[in-house]
Design a protein that fits this description.
The chain is α/β, with parallel strands linked by helices. The protein has nine helices and five strands. Bound molecules: BIS(adenosine)-5'-pentaphosphate. BIS(adenosine)-5'-pentaphosphate binds next to helix 1, helix 2, helix 3, helix 6 and helix 9.
Length: 192
């Protein structure tokens, strides 16, 4: 099974991807997590990505396309994978199509989680509060200024992907305003 989760920051892409990982035994490929790991390890990619991510902007297509292409080749992706946060621009979607074709692979579904912007802001605030309460480190882009920018980047660069995947007939939309379990159940209905 090869899936894409689309949706704005805080829509629940990571939450749902993790749940499906257990259910289907395939890995979650989160470009955000991969980039944060690169930043934490101060790799060349991490050094280039840090300031861009902190500002809530998108890292270059070239960097993420390469990261994803390499990751898809790993043995744990042989049965499939869940792309969380990639593609995020139309050029990334075009690159993914080419990448999959060159590897002889096909997508099974593109699932878009729809959530109101006011709810997205509340979810980011909740995540910050929960992280602080647990003594963890708050994400450097989970603050009002960077989050506003992340929403703008989403509207301008990622939202057009809905039309792109509607055009290929692969887009399925789920109401992401519902509670986590209800959203999972809706996704599972689509995948059944
Ligand atoms: P990334 O890490 O992908 O962040 P994001 O897309 O902004 O999304 P989030 O992780 O904040 O949200 P999510 O939709 O996964 O929601 P979650 O499940 O966490 O990207 C970070 C940065 O990396 C980007 O800004 C960019 O700089 C760079 N980057 C990454 N990919 C890139 C790419 N392809 N190209 C270029 N740059 C890239 O849930 C959020 C919160 O809500 C949680 O607290 C959760 O518990 C809660 N929640 C989840 N579901 C529900 C629900 N149904 N009801 C109530 N609360 C819920």
């Amino acid at each position: 099974m090869r899936l894409i989760f689309l949706g704005p920051p805080g829509a629940g892409k990571g939450t749902q991807a993790k749940l499906l990982t257990e259910r289907y035994g395939i890995p979650q490929l989160s470009t955000g997590d991969m980039l944060r790991a690169a930043v934490a390890q101060a790799t060349e990619v991490g050094k280039r990505a840090k300031a861009v991510m902190d500002a809530g902007q998108l890292v270059s297509d070239e960097i993420v396309n390469e990261i994803v292409s390499d990751r898809i080749d790993a043995p744990d992706c042989a049965k499939g994978f869940i792309l969380d946060g990639y593609p995020r621009t139309v050029p990334q979607a075009v690159a993914l199509d080419r990448m999959l074709e060159s590897k002889g692979l096909k997508l099974d579904a593109v699932i878009e989680l729809k959530v109101d912007e006011a709810a997205l802001v509340r979810r980011m605030e909740n995540r910050v509060a929960e992280t602080v309460a647990a003594g963890g480190t708050v994400r450097s882009d989970d603050n009002p200024e960077a989050f506003k920018r992340r929403l703008t980047e989403y509207r301008e660069k990622t939202a057009p992907l809905s039309e792109y995947y509607a055009g290929t007939g692969q887009l399925k939309t789920v109401d992401g305003m519902a509670d986590v379990n209800t959203v999972t159940a809706e996704i599972e209905k689509i995948l059944a």
